[in-house]
């Protein structure tokens, strides 16, 4: 063997280090299964691998985000299924009650007998008697529905005159001075009924079965209300998912813990649950700063007025017409419409609103209206037939000419319930709006007459008039991006017509005095149709809440069918995207693995070979380094 030179020594070192590097690489591959600890070890494939890893990272981020979105969608779907199940249970009981004979649920204190024992004929003159809806008047002639008692001298002869005037009816009997008739025949407003000659028969009372059915129906209505509130107040991931963008605020404000507490607020007589959506969702606060002094006045029964010292105190301007906001305005008497030429001119106005039109340009059309509908393009208002357009008119509003001014204002919607806060314990706590004066300074209301004094209340910061909506959330839609090219929209909130109709249907039944127990002799007219009317109204609203055809409607989410379809659609899209992303992630991981990974068994074999080579290199180096010149010579 030759004595090693410096060059040969360096070559041996280089070869040994190269073998050592290969051993280390094979050791890394054998332990990790990866081809290289850094990207430089992948050569030309490094760029491809980086791109694939970037795509995988984005996909994984979407998948993690979609897990949270999926929780929200599943929670919404579960809430809606619970609502649907509860509503179906209520509907079943409501159908059962509607099948009963509801025409004889209220007691009737006016049926039985009328005894004409008074022989002073003059005491009968001018008295009225309403029989089966027809009003008769005792008079000195027989014109129209007058009963001629001009020749009568006794009560018996007055009765004979009545008998001769009435159409034949086998249910009526006339015996000397006594007129006997079936229950529900004589109206309590008849002035003769309270003249002292009336003897009532046994009042009709509902059967135990009817009572139990109605009580069960009201309990079920309230239970369903509570379930509806709980579902719409669902909180997921720290957000109220039916809050319409205002995810930190509890969306549904329903402060009633029991049916009795609910009925104490909505007694069904002085304060009824609003019959339209605008009143049910009316959030409006009026203070003394707006009104000045308030004058309260009873107008009979449970009706009254609240008049503000400040003109227009109960109005909020919705639209001030001009060429930019409305363009030309057209009032159409035949169609009961108000048309603007600017798109979206009336978007701030909705069906059910109390609309007050003022300004010199409106002419005789300056009055109070109830809005029937607003077109989807926001250009046309249709008003109720009960508040018709007074005259055809076309006007082009000009800001420089006061004679062309037309102002559109809103006020408390008819049916709105106002909490009278800060007026004192002896003052009526709530009033219900039945109308508003054309100048916007007087509200016409119903209220408990026992706590509605004729008085003037001085302006004070201590009190306010608050119209509370059950819904305290927002209405903003939110969009969830679930992939590079797809997103789903969350546009369902607790104020949507589907839920508002459910509240209205349930509250119509749950409110107090579903049966009228008024004594017509002492308390006015008996509403024998109240139970039937409320059941029918509730059924009609409920059916619209469950499924509405939506033809010609501008409502968003008008029924449960639409809401469920949207949520299910979001869930299907999300599931499909998630499935595709899982498949894509698996493919990307495989592609990356094909580049990055090695066969660990093969790497182990190569490691052993490199280890043996390294040992041989070290052995050769040791032998070579141990040869001296002396040994060589």
Tell me what the structure shows:
- With 633 residues, this protein is an alpha+beta fold.
- The protein has helices at 6-32, 46-98, 155-165, 208-232, 259-265, 277-280, 288-291, 497-510, 520-523, 530-546, 560-596, 600-626, 629-632, and strands at residues 112-115, 128-131, 134-139, 146-148, 173-175, 178-181, 198-200, 235-236, 239-240, 284-287, 294-300, 303-308, 316-320, 329-332, 337-340, 354-358, 368-374, 380-383, 393-395, 407-411, 417-421, 430-436, 442-446, 455-457, 464-467, 478-481, 487-490.
- The protein has an 8-stranded antiparallel β-sheet. The protein has an 8-stranded antiparallel β-sheet with strand order 13-20-16-17-18-15-14-19, with no helix packed on it.
- Strand 17 and strand 18 form a beta hairpin.
- Helix 1 packs antiparallel against helix 12 (600-626) and helix 8 (497-510) packs antiparallel against helix 10 (530-546).
- The longest helix is centred in the first third of the chain and has 53 residues, at 46-98.
- The mean pLDDT is 88.
